[in-house]
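Need residues for this backbone.
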């Protein structure tokens, strides 16, 4: 029996989501078509848009469907109003790439969890870090455009309470299908400039036929994330407490300090490489990771640990929970890890 504790990379598609998508796999469903089938597809698309908007607390017309959070980060930063760009060291590679693609500046990650910088233009931050769940607050309101990568936070935090003009989301982090995401712009999308040009889809701001089945699944996943968030958070907090105690018994320590979203933890173990721990756990039937899935297989230190100048930069082991993660999954993970560490 394998155990999956890598939900920050992608979480399995929920049964309710599969059922919602099922009818649309067999239907001709181009939402741009003028006939009855097209109008039905457009109606389904707009219903999904409303569910995604509700998760963030934004109007439906502020939702632009994308292929995922990477594209949403690019659209929200590169397509933002004019001005210099600012990012934070150690954030997701797609967010850093968008900031640098705009010729921006990457600031050191604050140890306090509070970003205190002066500036103007575009600020790109992360609601909850994809490696350790840490949250980042602002010392003062940002005077310009504020883009927030909320891919890892969407099922773990109340997104209606976070600041930001534009919010990037990924369906696959919510129990929805892969290949679907959104940029949610509060106050309307008039300020956004398209980065993918072609047809007039998504009000001319993101060309390409929107996959209706995936959008419907994303909408259902967003609805469930909103309705089940409090129950999920309580469950993940209990699993976090169990994991933190177990890691301490194994000689590990958790990375990060201050406030963080539940259900994402990164541990380091003195003298041990994270990628080798991941490989050994995989052989033991445990699916974990050493950081972002988009950099998996790399022997380079974790982006987060590098940004924090951690003394064990190559030792990251990330564990992350989903809705169906059990206490037994955590116990089995640390039983396997303890054996691996004892073998040396």
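Answer:
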């Amino acid at each position: 029996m394998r155990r999956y504790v890598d939900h920050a990379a992608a979480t399995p598609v929920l049964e309710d989501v599969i059922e919602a998508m099922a009818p649309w796999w067999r239907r001709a469903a181009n939402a741009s078509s003028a006939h009855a089938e097209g109008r039905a597809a457009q109606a389904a698309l707009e219903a999904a848009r409303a569910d995604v908007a509700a998760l963030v607390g934004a109007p439906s017309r502020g939702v632009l469907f994308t292929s995922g959070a990477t594209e949403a980060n690019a659209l929200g930063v590169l397509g933002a109003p004019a001005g210099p760009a600012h990012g934070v060291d150690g954030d997701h590679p797609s967010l850093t790439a968008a900031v640098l693609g705009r010729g921006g500046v990457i600031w050191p990650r604050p140890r306090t969890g509070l970003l205190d910088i002066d500036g103007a233009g575009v600020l790109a931050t992360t609601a909850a870090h994809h490696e350790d769940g840490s949250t980042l607050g602002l010392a003062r309101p940002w005077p310009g455009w504020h883009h927030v990568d909320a891919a890892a936070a969407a099922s773990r935090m109340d997104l209606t309470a976070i600041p930001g003009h534009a919010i990037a989301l990924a369906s696959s982090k919510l129990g929805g299908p892969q290949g679907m995401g959104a940029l949610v712009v509060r106050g309307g999308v008039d300020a956004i400039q398209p980065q993918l040009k072609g047809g007039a889809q998504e009000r001319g701001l993101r060309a390409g036929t929107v996959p209706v089945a995936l959008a419907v699944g994303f909408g259902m996943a967003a609805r469930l994330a909103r309705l089940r968030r409090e129950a999920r958070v309580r469950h993940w907090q209990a699993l976090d407490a169990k994991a933190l105690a177990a890691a301490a018994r194994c000689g590990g320590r958790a990375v990060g300090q201050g406030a963080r979203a539940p259900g994402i933890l990164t541990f380091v173990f003195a003298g041990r490489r994270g990628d080798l721990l991941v490989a050994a756990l995989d052989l033991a039937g445990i699916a974990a990771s050493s950081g972002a899935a988009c950099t998996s297989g790399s022997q380079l230190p974790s982006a987060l640990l590098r940004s924090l100048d951690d003394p064990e930069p190559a030792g990251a082991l990330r564990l992350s929970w989903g809705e169906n993660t059990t206490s037994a999954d955590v116990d089995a993970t640390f039983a396997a890890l303890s054996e691996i560490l004892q073998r040396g």
